[in-house]
Amino acid sequence: MGEVKEFLLQFLIASLPAFLFPLTNTMRLRRSFNDEAASADSVYRITLGFTLTCALSMILCSLFSPRLWGTLHLDFAILPLFALMLYSRMAEGVFLASLHLLLYPVFAVNPTFSGFILDTGLLLYPLVLFFSKSFYRSGRKGKVAILSLFFLLGELMITSSPYLLGTARLEKSLSLLAIAGMNIIFTIFISTLFVWMIEHTYEKEKLRMQVMQLSRNYFREAEKLQQMMDAAPLSIILLDRQGDIMTINETFIQLFRRYKPQARKEELIHSRLAPVMADLGFEVLIERAGQSLEEHIKTRELLQSGDKTYFTSTSPIQKGHTDETIGAVVIIQDITELETFRKELNHVERLSLVGQMAAGITHEIRNPMAVVRGFLQLMQEKSPPTLDNYYRIVMEELDRANSIINDFLSLAQNRSVRMELCSLHDIIRELTPLLWADANLRGQSIEVRLDEELPDLLLNQKEIKQLILNLGRNGMEAMGEKGELTIETRKRVDGVELSVKDQGPGIPAAQRERLFEPFYTTKSQGTGLGLALCLSIMERHSGKISVQSEEGKGTTFTVFFPCPENVESWM
To answer: Percentages helix, strand, coil for the chain, rounded to the nearest 5?
Structure first.
């Protein structure tokens, strides 16, 4: 029984690194699997801890190694040595091998060089280091086989050392055969235990970290999905199989708070859909969601709640490519503004149709008006001179009506115009005599300031002449006698500015907002088409027109023409 106790003691001491490995390295393994930055440091600490436990086990095995029957040397110290050499790096393996060699003269009874070679298993060291890469790539059974083979060879060298060196005689003995058999059994068992404990610890922690990584990925993807839902301009509700609310987005919270300002997201999660939809006045969605869950039906419909219009849809959520429904999604979109825009667009289309009809009718009116004017001229020639004043008044009114018709047609037709590169200054100089003539009749003056560095612009000369005449005559009509009209051009980085400034009484702010509306006028006999026509002209030229006015100090209309390259890019 004493021999069995010695075997068990060596077994326990040699197995010490295997038993301590899961206790000392579990947290370090987690760090190495979890944090790439800490991986190298964790591996170093794992190797260091394993090296120290193997060294301690090797020293204790050598310290308590007995001589069975005074002859057989029982020493399992080579097991932690070979395990470290196979599992760890070469540096740690060489260190522990050197330590094992140094322990031999300390604990050996009669140290000899031959005994040093056999009792330390020195001849196996190069083979163990050579097979370390194959050991690393092997599975668990392969590692057990490699470690058991080298351990068994080492133990055979140690136990056979006295017989090979001639210090003991080889005799047939049942005890010797029993010791040899026990040695083989313990060698295989302890090698298996050693590999199993280390590999099981690695696999267990790796599996644990994989589960944790999957959990982190799941929560990360769930958070990304929630952020995407919160960013969507739609109210989204996800339901589980029982019709309970799993999650909602921020847009739905804002919608729900219109009816319940104190509502919180946590109160709505995991609640039933029915009371939530009842609070919103969408009871019909309760039935629609039930149809999606039970009958796999998708629904879409418009709902009215107060003065708001909503587009709603419900759809089943199915598991993979199967027909199994695991939930449903309810989407609510506030389309009140879209409905308003649609109605306004329909209204604009009807107005456009009416405008086209009016333009056609107005165009046809000009022909009989021209005939009437012609016959009036013939009648004037045959009438006494006393009636000339009446004929003049009638023909002036006909001319004014014709002018209004021309302005209306120009505004209503919104036709494309042909443009060409030309000088704005040439157009202004061509119109200056006409404006001066009007100014002289009113007792007013005109000042023209032209920037000589002005580039040529893409213009339709006929429309720009009409624009300048309209703005100039409006300014003259707004001023009293001795007023001055200023026409000025300025070069800007991105285009050209034309300003027409008068010294009239100015325009109140309330009227300025409506100046460019068709048929709105501040004059007693105005038509309200002049400025609307100017705005239409500038829109066709990809430009802008604005007004600045101060009561008592006058009004300035500013027209901006973009540079030709900018116009081409817009067109």
So the answer is: 65, 15, 20
User: Side chain identity at 71, as an amino acid letter?
Assistant: T
Chain-centroid distance, C-alpha 364: 59
Q: What whole-number distance in Å separates Cα of residue 201 and Cα of residue 208?
A: 10
Quote the DSSP letter at residue 455. P
What b-and-e string marks burial along 185-224, b requiring 16 or more CB atoms within 10 Å of the CB?
Answer: ebbbebbbbbbebbeebbeebeeebeeeeeeeeeeeeeee
- CA-based angle 499:505:509, to the nearest 5? 80
Buried b (16+ CB within 10 A) or exposed e, 56-94: ebbbbbbebbbebeeebbbbbbbbbbbbbbbbbeeebbe
- Cα–Cα distances (Å) from 230 to 245, 248, 308, 331, in that order, read 16, 8, 21, 13
With tokens 């026509």, the residue in question is 533
Neighbour count for residue 137 (Cβ, 10 Å): 8
Backbone angles phi, psi at 484, to 5 degrees: -120, 130
Q: How many angstroms separate the CA atoms of 159 and 165, rounded?
A: 11
CA distance 154 to 158: 6
The Cα–Cα gap between 503 and 194 comes to 105
Query: Are residues 401 and 527 in contact, defined by beta-carbon separation less than 8 angstroms?
Result: no
3-class SS of residue 334: strand
**Cα–Cα dist 17/273, whole Å:** 59
500/430 Cα distance (integer angstroms): 16
CA atoms within 13 A on the CB side of 305: 22
Helices (H), 15-77: 16-34, 36-63
CA distance 428 to 485: 14
Token pair 């149709």 is at which residue?
353
The reported pLDDT for the residue numbered 171 is: 54
**CA–CA distance, 563 with 26 (Å, rounded to integer):** 73
What value does the mean pLDDT of the chain take? 78
CA distances from 318 to 69, 221, 324 (A): 76, 19, 5
What is the pLDDT averaged over residues 387-404?
72
Element of type H or E holding 283: helix 283-295
> d(Cα 151, Cα 14) in Å, to the nearest integer?
11
Taking the C-alpha atoms of residue 474 and residue 467, their distance in angstroms, rounded to an integer, is: 11
Please say if the pLDDT value at position 569 is more than 50. no
- For the question of whether the overall pTM of this predicted structure is more than 0.70, the answer is no
Q: What is the pLDDT of residues 182-225, one digit of tens each?
A: 777 777 887 888 788 877 877 777 787 788 888 888 888 888 88
By residue count, the chain amounts to 571
Q: What are 278's two structure tokens?
A: 């009842």
Ramachandran angles phi, psi of 415, nearest 5°: -85, 160
How many secondary structure helices (H) and strands (E) does the chain include? Answer: 22, 14
Q: Quick count: other Cβ atoms within 10 Å of Cβ 27?
A: 12
What's the rounded Cα separation, in Å, for the pair 80 and 223?
48
